Amino acid sequence: MSSEILRRKVLDVINIVESHGLFVHDSRLVVRCGDGEEIRVLEMPLVVTLAVLNALVPRGAMLLYGGHGGGKTTLAKVLGRMMTGAYLSDVEEAIVRGHPQLTEEKMIATLKPGRLLKDGVEEVVWRRFVTSFWKIVDEVNRLTPYTQNILLSLLAEGKVKFYDAVYECDHFVLYATMNPQDPGTFEVGLPFLDRFGIAVPITMPSLTEIPFILAGQDEKLYGYDPYYQVPQVLSMEELVSTWRLVDAIPVDEEAKLFVGNLMSEFSVCERTSKENVAILRPDTGLCDGCHFNVEKSVCNKVVTPLSVRAAKDILRYSKALSWLLGLEKVTVDVVYAVAPYAIWHRVRYPEKLIREEPYYGDQLKFTLNIVRLVRERFAARRKALEIFEKFKVGEGDEKEMRMLEEWGRSDVVVKVEVAPKARYFASREYRKMIEMLKMALGSGSVEKLEEVRDAVVSEGGIPNRFEILRMVEEKLYESTKRSYKVTFIDWKAIYGRLAERFPELQEPLKHTFNPPKSRFIKSRELIIAVHTTGRHEDDPVFIEVAGGRKAEEVSKLIKEACGS
Predict the structure, then answer these.
(1) Which end of the chain has fewer CB within 10 Å, C or N?
(2) In order of start, what are the domains of the chain with their CATH numbers?
(3) What tens digit of pLDDT does each residue of 410-425 get?
(4) In a 10 Å sphere around its CB, with 0-12 CB exposed, 13-18 middle and 19+ buried, how is residue 72 labelled?
(5) Element (H, E) at 153
C-alpha cells in the first residue's frame, strides 16, 4: 500500500474522531509550512493529532494529563480500535487500571498453579496488557513506585520480566493517563516521565463544546457502533508499515541545528554542570550575580536539563507530523510546533517563575514561551553558527575565532559550547584528517573512506576525534545506502542466503520471522536494518543496507535472491 493511501487513512482517523464527536477539544496544533510567498499555516486538532502521532512512531509512549472525566481513556481506546482493527472489548481487556493494590501478578503475569504444584515448574502466563500491541495504563500516578518500575522497564528496554521469564515487547503503542488532582497518588519522578515521548494536558470542554457533546447518542445506552461510529480504518500491519515511512522522512540541517540549540539552551551554564548539581540551582541562587542572568536568557529559567532521549523524541514526532502533513522533510517550523509537547512534562522550572503572571502554574504555557525564546536566540546567533560550521569543515581563520569569542560575551551557548569547540577544530591534527576526508570524498571510493576511518581510529591524539569519525560514518552511510522493499516470502529466501554467506547474521535476523519486528545490526563494515510488518506472503518487508565492501556484497545478494 502506498504512502499516500496510508496517509489518507490516518487523516481519516482524525476526521472521524472529530466528526463523530468521539473526542471534542477546541485547541489547535498550528504548523507553519513553506518559505517566502508560499507560506501556509496548517491547523490540526491538538490532542487528537498528537495522540495519532504517538501511534506513528515505534514504541510510542504518550501521557494524557488532566482531571477525571475529560475523555483521556476513551480517546486512547477508540484510537486503538480505528488504528489496529481490534475490537473495543479487546482494547478494554488489556487496560491496566492504576491502583495502590495493583500487584505484579495482576499487572504483567502469573504462574500456572497446576504445573507449579504438580511438577514444580514455573510456567508463566502473561497478562493481556503485556501481549497486546495497543497498551493503555489508566491513572498511572496511582501505581506504586514498584509497579512504576515495571512499566519503566517496558518503556526503557521493551522487555517485561517475571521470575526467570522474559517477554520481549518489540512493537507496541502505549498511552498513559494521569490525573494530578487525585489525592490517592504516588509521586512520579522525572526519570519515569522522561520515558514518555510526548504529553498533552487535557482540559474540560468549553461552553461551545458542551452542546456538541450532549447532541451525541448515549453511549451507556447504545454503546459504540464498531462499524460506523468507531470503524476500523487501518490494520495493525498497515500501522506498523507507516513507521518505516515516517522514519524515512529526511531532517533539514537547519532543523537538526535547532534541536541542538534547544538542548544546549536547557543545559548550558557558565558556572557548573546542571546535570550533577543537587544543592545550588537556578531557583536556589546559582544565577545570582551572573553576567547572563537577564530576561532574554533561557539558562536562568531551567532547573533540570533535557535528556538525549528528549532530542530523539522531538525528531521522531517531528518526522511523524511531517509525514502526516505530506511535507518533504522536517523543518524548523515543524520542530517548533512539536517540541513543547515533548519537553514540558520532563523538566523542572523555578517555581517562582511558574507561579507568576501570565502562567499561574501552567507548565506547558511556560514551555511554549521558553521554546519561543530559544528560536529567537537561535536566529540571533545564526552568524556565529555559520562561522562554527566553517571551522568544523577545516576552514575558518583567527579573525573569525576572535569574532566567536567576542560573541560569547553576550551569548552563553557560544561562550561555553561553540567557541571552545571551534578552537579544537582549528588544530593542525584535526584539519589534516579533514583534508584526508575531503580527498576520499572527491575520489568517490568507499575504500578511501574506510582508510580515513581506520586512520582516525588508530590516531589517538586528534582533538574531537569522534566528530571526524561521525562525519566519516555519515559519508560512508550516504554513499553506500541501499533501500529495498520486498515481500515476506522474498525475505525468507533472502534470509536463507544471508545466513549461509554470513553466519553471524543468522541469529539476530531470525527474530524477524515473528512480525512485526525490527532488527538493526551494525558492525565495522556493515549496517543492516530489517523491518517486517506481517507474516502473510505479500506483507511488506523493508531492508536497508549500508557500510563498506561487505554492505555491497549483501546488496548484491539481496538483488540476486529477488531476481533483479
Answers:
(1) C
(2) 3-246 (3.40.50.300), 249-380 (1.10.8.80), 428-478 (no CATH), 481-562 (3.30.310)
(3) 999 999 999 999 998 8
(4) buried
(5) helix 145-157
